[in-house]
Write a structure and sequence with these properties.
The complex is a heterodimer.
Chain A lengths: L4 H13 L12 E6 L6 H13 L3 E7 L4 E6 L5 H11 L4 E3 L1 H8 L2 H28 L4 H22 L1 H12 L6 H20 L7 H35 L3 E6 L2 E6 L8 E4 L8 E6 L2 E4 L1 H4 L5 E3 L4 E2 L4 E2 L4 E7 L5 H11 L10 H28 L2 H15 L2 H20 L2 E3 L4 H6 L3 E4 L1 H5 E7 L7 H11 L5 H12 L8 E6 L3 E6 L2 E6 L1 H4 L8 E5 L7 E9 L3 H10 L3 E5 L4 H11 L3 E3 L4 H13 L4 E4 L6 H6 L2 E5 L4 H6 L2 E3 L6 H35 L5 H20 L3
Parallel strand pairs in A: 15-22, 15-24, 22-23, 24-25, 25-26
Antiparallel strand pairs in A: 1-3, 1-4, 2-3, 5-6, 5-7, 7-13, 8-11, 8-13, 9-10, 9-12, 14-26, 16-21, 17-18, 18-19, 19-20, 20-21
Helix pairs in contact in A: 1-3, 2-3, 4-9, 5-6, 5-9, 6-8, 6-9, 7-8, 8-9, 8-13, 9-14, 9-26, 12-13, 12-25, 13-25, 14-25, 14-26, 17-18, 20-25, 25-26
Chain B lengths: L3 H24 L6 H7 L12
Classes of the chains: A alpha+beta, B mainly alpha.
Chain lengths: 726, 52
């Protein structure tokens, strides 16, 4: 899933070799969770469960295919790192998940609560509808009264239990002197129940018990859909966070011991292996290596570090093991301070009022006035309180926002489901509506448009012999440049030269002996060459000639070119802003055909530029992944970040791109427009039903049968219209 | 019409029974993995005797 995460995972089996700590008063059973992104069928479930259950120490293992996860109960000393190789042996990719970050999804209390209320409303409305239909089809006198009384006995407790979410919402809005969609709902429910009870006690003809229950049922269905959409997004977002298990290796008496990051204290010595991320701010005491700072600053060139150098949390160690003395931990790290700044910044989404809220603002006062007018008018006309109240209740019930309550959630559920299949996770409920308005797109460079993996540029400049030499040296190192060189050389069919005494100097390069000569591949300074502006690895052939450079550029993310082209074709302005050098940014801009770009941008510059664009009336979509983008992501109208982004950036963005491919972005913009159009259509359908039914209600012709028909037809039409989005 | 004396309690009982059954399925986590459950039915693993 993420290039940055993989190395850290690959290192994990190494932890097994390290003596593990004594479990502190451990319970007899530990729970582990593994993410299995590649499982998809019955055979996979059986293989994984059989494989895990056969492993010593595991009490029980169960696969959840919906979440693509395995939950394991095992002996407390069993580590997830022991199980990952087992699963990889079976042919499944596996990553450890941090159970603490997953806790929220496991006890989905709110979802269950809603589902339970939905069920009660559903079953009660079925029973009451059965009785109501008998009344409508001709039951009279004592039979009708008995049916009404039974309906009342079912409806009162059911509505009081099932309607609780509406009561609490309406109350919290009224307490601060505001109106929301729930106020007319509660008023309609209460009025319907009370007038119907009164009618029943007077042996009246019309009772709206069935309407009150179906109303609750449809509205709860809308709420539940809305909740599910957000719950799916939240659990996927949590899983991304849980993939980064917060553990570090602390040196204790010269031995590294695995501890949770939260337990690290000032002046602890921490071992960071190649591929690992710095857990703290600190100072290097041992080792030499190169650091990838791209997530914090956007620069692509790795930085050379040695004892005495300062490091910040979030930087990725590339080549040699480093020992770091912690100078700031947890909340005090620069990573956290920067992430906190984002929380303070004014967010684009807080300024946005959703379509549903705008509709409610028009709608809620409207129906109250209408029903009050109907009541006053009929009372003055007939001086019959009972009749006036009945008509007022009928108006409220018929105008009740059943379809309105379904109009938005039904569409967003359908759209989010479709985008989720294409690898996009909609985190915010209004993100789609905001995405539909976008006219300007700002991209970050490193890690967003580019994959963060180097690509060899000048392979053809080298002779076969040189390549063979370079390949042999490159194979001795796990450095990203060496791996890119290895891949490129092997792709053209070069065999490595025979080299002896191969040795890696972390932070510098590799050297070896070739036909008695000393040959080296590494950074410019080590070989005595001039460092240029471009990422390069230098090859010294040991024959007295000057070292030559292998030049690299950052590989484009798949779909980047298409996404930019499609967005431009759709008439959107595309901008590129990066913290990297001007030369690198200009090069990428020309490659992708982006006209406006800005290099060496500080985090503040990005946010200011986006603010300026918004002030000019543009709606900006920001796509970025680094900590330096978070302020810009928050300031933008809507924001997208790839799954490989830092946690802080993912939290700040509205949509997370799960795959490597960028192409879905353009598609999402199109789909968002379609979805907004459907939402507006749904509003229109709902209004149309009201325009037909309200005059009937005001004129006093509405019967419970007409109310039930109008309500169900409009709700069903709205849901069907939403499904057309597929 | 005396048949109503039987039919109404029966319909209420059936509705209530279904509600109780539904609440039981929610409480016992039966909706946690709909995808997996629909596939597990294809497994031959516990066809001959139930899982101990």
């Amino acid at each position: 899933m993420t290039a940055q995460m993989r190395p850290a995972m690959a290192v994990c089996p190494g932890c097994v070799a390290a003596p593990s700590e004594v479990p502190e008063q451990a319970p007899s059973e530990a729970r582990l969770a593994l993410s299995l992104p590649t499982i998809h069928c019955q055979a996979c479930i059986s293989t994984v469960e059989r494989g895990l259950n056969a492993h010593p120490g595991i009490h029980s293992a169960r696969v959840n295919l919906t979440l693509k996860r395995a939950l394991i109960e095992a002996d407390p000393d069993l580590r997830a790192a022991d199980l990952i190789p087992v699963l990889e042996g079976l042919g499944f990719e596996a990553h450890e998940l941090d159970l603490a970050s997953l806790a929220a999804t496991q006890s989905d209390r709110a979802g269950r609560d809603l589902l339970m209320r939905l069920a009660v409303a559903g079953f009660a409305s079925m029973n009451v509808m059965l009785l109501s239909i008998s009344v409508w089809s001709g039951a009279s006198d004592a039979t009708r009264d008995m049916f009404h009384w039974i309906s009342a006995a079912i409806a009162f407790p059911a509505v009081i239990f099932a309607g609780k979410p509406f009561f609490t919402n309406a109350w919290s809005a009224l307490r601060v002197g505001r109106l929301n969609m729930d106020v007319p709902i509660v008023l309609a429910l209460a009025l319907a129940l009370i007038t119907s009870l009164w009618e029943t006690s007077l042996s009246g003809e019309h009772a709206y018990f069935d309407a009150a229950l179906t109303l609750t049922f449809f509205l709860l269905a809308g709420r539940y859909l809305d909740y599910r959409t957000r719950a799916v997004a939240r659990s996927a977002a949590e899983e991304l966070a849980a993939l980064e298990v917060p553990r570090a290796l602390r040196m204790q008496d010269g031995v590294p011991v695995e501890v949770p990051v939260a337990d690290l204290a000032l002046n602890d010595l921490i071992l960071v292996r190649p591929g690992g991320r710095m857990p703290v701010d600190g100072c290097i005491t041992e080792g030499q290596s190169e650091l990838d700072r791209s997530l914090l600053t956007g620069e692509t060139l790795p930085v050379f570090v040695e004892p005495g150098a300062q490091v910040s949390a979030g930087e990725v160690n590339l080549t040699g093991p480093l020992v770091v003395r912690a100078e700031a931990v947890g909340e005090d790290t620069s990573l956290h301070r920067m992430a906190d700044l984002v929380a303070i910044a004014e967010s684009g989404r807080s300024r946005y009022t959703s379509l549903a809220d705008r509709a409610a603002k028009l709608y809620a006062p409207g129906v109250h006035i209408l029903s009050a007018l109907a009541f006053v008018g009929w009372y003055l006309y007939t001086f019959d309180l009972r009749m006036a109240l009945n008509i007022a209740a009928a108006v409220l019930i018929i105008t009740c926002p059943c379809a309105l309550g379904l109009a938005v959630p039904a569409v967003t559920t359908a759209a989010s489901g479709r985008l989720f299949k294409r690898g996009m996770l909609i985190k915010d409920s209004t993100a789609l509506e905001r995405l539909a308005e976008v006219d300007t797109v700002v991209f970050d460079k490193t890690g967003t448009l580019t994959a963060g993996t180097p690509q060899l540029e000048n392979l053809d400049d080298f002779s076969h012999a040189d390549l063979a030499l370079a390949l042999a040296l490159a194979q001795g190192s796990a450095h990203p440049l060496s791996q890119a060189l290895t891949g490129a050389a092997q792709a053209v069919g070069v065999d490595p030269a025979a080299i002896s005494a191969l040795q890696e100097h972390p932070g510098y390069g590799t050297e070896g002996l070739f036909q008695g000569r000393q040959v080296r591949l590494g950074r410019a300074g080590w070989l005595g060459a001039e460092q240029g502006g471009q990422t390069a690895a230098w090859l010294d052939r040991g024959d007295g000639t000057a070292p030559r450079a292998f030049l690299f550029h950052d590989a484009l993310r798949p779909g980047a070119a298409q996404a930019v082209a499609q967005l431009q074709a759709a008439g959107k302005e595309v901008l590129l802003m990066s913290g990297d050098t001007n030369a690198a940014v200009a090069d990428l801009a020309t490659r992708l055909g982006i006209k406006t770009w800005q290099g060496e941008a500080l985090p503040k510059d990005k946010a200011t530029r986006i603010q300026a664009l918004s002030d000019q009336g543009h709606r900006v979509l920001m796509v970025g992944d680094g900590l330096n983008d978070t302020a810009a992501l928050t300031a933008a109208h809507v924001s997208i970040s790839p799954a490989s982004a830092l946690d802080a950036a993912r939290v700040a963005s509205d949509i997370v791109l799960l795959g490597q491919d960028l192409e879905p972005i353009a598609e999402a913009c199109v789909l968002a427009r379609k979805a907004t159009r459907r939402i507006r259509e749904n509003f229109r359908i709902a209004t149309l039903y009201n325009v037909v039914a309200v005059p009937l209600a005001i004129a006093g012709f509405a019967t419970p049968l007409i109310a039930a028909l109008a309500m169900s037809t409009s709700s069903i039409t709205v849901s069907l219209n939403a499904l057309r989005l597929k | 019409m005396s048949v109503l004396a039987y039919l109404i309690p029966i319909s209420l009982l059936l509705g209530g029974g279904a509600l109780v059954a539904f609440i039981y399925t929610v409480r016992s986590n039966q909706y946690d993995d709909p995808e997996g459950d629909s596939r597990r039915i294809l497994s031959e693993e516990w066809d001959d005797h139930p899982k101990p």
